[in-house]
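Predict the 3D structure for this chain.
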Amino acid sequence: MRIYDGSVSEDKQIEPPAPLLQTVCEVLPPVSRFHNFKNTLHIGVLNYKSRPKFTTMMSLALAVCAVTLFLVIALFGQSLISPLTTTLDGVGIEGKVIVSGTGDGISADTLDELAYDTNAGYILGDRTLSEFTVTVPESGDMLGDYEVVCLYSPYEYNLSANEGVLVLPQSASSDGAAIAAAFTNAGVGLENIEIKTSLTAEDVRLYLGYGALAENGLKIQAINSTVRLGEDETTVYTFTVNSSLADGNINLVNSNYFNVVGRTAVFTTKADKAYIVADASGENENIDGLIVEMSAADYAAMFESDLSGATQACLYYSSDEAARAAIANLPEGYMGLLSTSNIYVQNPGDVFTTNVLWYVALIAVSLLIGVLIGIIFMRSVKIYQADFAVYRTLGIPNKVSSRSLYIQMALIFLPALVLLPLVSHCDDYPR
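Done. Predicted structure below.
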C-alpha cells in the first residue's frame, strides 16, 4: 500500500496472504450486528465531517430543492385543481340570499310575498345592483388605480339615498378623499360619503343604500364606463343632461379627440343604441375626465331603472342561519342560494382537464429534479472510494462502508427535514 497526501494512492496485493490456521479462525470472535450498526453510524458521521464544504453545499442544494418542490406541489397544486368552483358573489354578505324564479323574472309583488313568507328584513329587486365594480383611475397624487366594489349590505349600513360608506385598507387611506370625490362629483345623487379605514381590509368597498341603488344604481355603474367612437375606445367619467340637444345627439366635454363631430358613439352602458357626436369642444375645469351630454329623453332611457323585473333578486336576513331556514321555506318554482355558495365555473370539464395536465407537468419536473439529486448522490460514492480502501485495511467490511453513506446523506438532508414543517404552514395562509 502507498499513501500520498493523506490518502491511499495505490493499493495492490504483492503476494497472496498466508491462509489462517484453523485454530486462529476458531479463536476470532464473530462480529455482532449491533457492532456493525454502531460502526456504520460512526463512519457515517466521520464522512459527514470529513468534507465540510461538500456537505454544506449538498445540504443547501437539497434543502432548496425540497422546499421548492413542496411549495410547487402544495401551492400550485391547490390553485390548479381547486378553481372548478367559484362563489356567487365576490364579496360574501352575511344573510344575503340570491333568489331565482321561473318565467320572465321576479315581479315586485312576488318579491314582496317571498320576503313576507320568509321573514326577510330587506329586499333588492335586481341582483346586478347588489354588487358591482367601478374603476377609479389614478389622478393627481393618488397611489394608483382602484377597483371599487359597490355593495348593498343593509344590516351593516342602512343608508339614505344620498349617503355612502367607503371602506378601504389603511395603506390606501391617503387616497380615500380622491376616491370618494370620484363618486360625489359624478352627479349620480351621492352627496355624503363617510370614509373608514381598516387594517384587515384587502379591497376598496363602497356601501350604498337602497334608495341610491333604486334611483341611481345604473348611473353609478356607468361611472368610468367605456364608449366606442368608430375604431377608438375611451373612458367616460359621467353623463349629464343638456336640454338643448336633440334626441340621438351628444356633446363631448373635456374631450381629447379631434375631428369626432358626426361620428357614431356606442356606450357599454346601453349598447343597443348609437348616438351621433354633435360637438366635442366643451370644457369643464372643475371636473377631470370625459363628460357626455345628452338630451333629457336619452338620459332617462339610458338610466331607466326597473327593480321589479329582473331574473334574479336578493333577500336579506340577519344571519346565514336565518337565510338557510328561509331558503328551505321558499315556495315551489323558486330557488335560493347564499351569496357565498360555491357553483361550478363555465366548462368545468375543460378547466379540470387543463389543470390536470399542468399538474402532471409539475410532477414530471419534480421527478426530474429527484433523478438529478440521485445522480449527485451516486457520484458522491466515488469520492469515498479511497476512504473505503483505508477502512478495509482496518478490517471494516464493505457493507458497513457503503451503508455509512446513507447515514451521511441522512445528515445532509436533515436541514431540509427541519425546514419542511415550517414551510408547510404557508398552505394555511389566506390567498
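The two ends are 64 Å apart (CA to CA).
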